[in-house]
Task: inverse folding
């Protein structure tokens, strides 16, 4: 492998930049497309060299130049010729597969828009690459299953009021929002929040969607939205991140589609929703599957049935 395709990283610097911005290892793992264990190994220098493409995504997520995270091979002990294989487990708000649209792609898209798009709307409404929003979605849902959507806003570049606008897929309705939406219209498939920059840099918006009727398998739900900001300058940006969800015979929390919810998947749910305990995400059912049972979806009844873990494993031998 070409030495230019790997980077010797400074794990101490990665950890310092992450903690300085109050970011979790899960956030970095999601942005780069690796596991939290991999981020931990990078920070502890268990993996002293990583793929350059991952290093670029890491620098993008931490909002620092790549040079601030890299070491010079001629001055530090590093093995640039070898790339340590990392396990790319599926994370939710995807929470998280290899096919996930990473944050860097969303930023690149925004940069292109800054060159091409200008629009008049109560003054000048411009597209800005500095206003960062990211949508997390499960990769898949059951045909009749409600599921959560998370939108995270980086308010670092906010100077005034903002409005977050989300287009809801046809055939679905919003069950609940957190915080409460400023405007919620299921008939027009629109959802809006208004707010101002506060003490916290990152703001989280969650809504629960429910299919109005059973959606056929393999159908795809499409999402889109943007955020507009008013202050000294009016700014608009598309929401980056995930834009589609596929209908499948697997629970949305079952990230690797093995008809089980393992400890890693349960920890992901806790990380994402521990501060939003009142949201109806079906936590009781998720805990039941996680505790000591598997599940399968019955197409005829449209219901989830539980199976003993041992029995389920035996059926797949």
Result:
């Amino acid at each position: 492998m070409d030495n230019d395709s790997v980077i010797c990283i400074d794990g101490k610097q990665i950890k310092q930049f992450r903690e300085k911005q109050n970011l979790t290892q899960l956030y970095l793992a999601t942005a780069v497309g690796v596991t939290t264990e991999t981020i931990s190994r990078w920070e502890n220098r268990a993996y002293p060299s990583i793929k350059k493409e991952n290093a670029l995504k890491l620098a993008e997520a931490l909002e620092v130049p790549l040079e601030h995270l890299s070491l010079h091979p001629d001055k530090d002990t590093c093995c640039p010729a070898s790339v340590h294989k990392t396990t790319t487990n599926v994370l939710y708000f995807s929470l998280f597969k290899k096919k996930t649209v990473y944050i860097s792609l969303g930023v690149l898209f925004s940069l292109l828009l800054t060159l091409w798009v200008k629009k008049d709307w109560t003054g000048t409404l411009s597209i800005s690459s500095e206003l960062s929003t990211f949508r997390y979605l499960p990769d898949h849902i059951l045909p009749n299953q409600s599921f959560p959507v998370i939108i995270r806003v980086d308010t670092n570049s906010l100077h005034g009021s903002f409005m977050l606008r989300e287009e809801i897929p046809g055939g679905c309705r919003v069950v609940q929002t957190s915080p409460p939406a400023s405007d919620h219209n299921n008939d027009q498939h629109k959802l809006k929040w208004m707010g101002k920059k506060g003490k916290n840099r990152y703001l989280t918006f969650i809504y629960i969607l429910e299919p109005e009727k059973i959606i056929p398998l393999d159908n795809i739900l499409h999402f889109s939205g943007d955020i507009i900001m008013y202050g000294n300058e009016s700014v608009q940006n598309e929401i980056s991140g995930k834009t589609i969800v596929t209908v499948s015979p697997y629970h949305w929390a079952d990230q690797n589609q093995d008809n089980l919810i393992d400890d890693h998947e349960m920890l992901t749910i806790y990380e994402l929703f521990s501060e939003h305990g009142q949201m109806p995400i079906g936590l009781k059912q998720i805990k039941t599957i996680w505790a000591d049972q598997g599940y399968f979806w019955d197409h005829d009844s449209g219901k989830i049935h539980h199976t003993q873990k041992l029995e389920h494993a035996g059926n797949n031998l």
About this structure: Residues 73-77, 79-129, 309-317 have pLDDT under 50 and may be disordered. The helical segments are 11-20, 25-32, 36-43, 52-62, 103-116, 263-273, 283-292, 309-315.
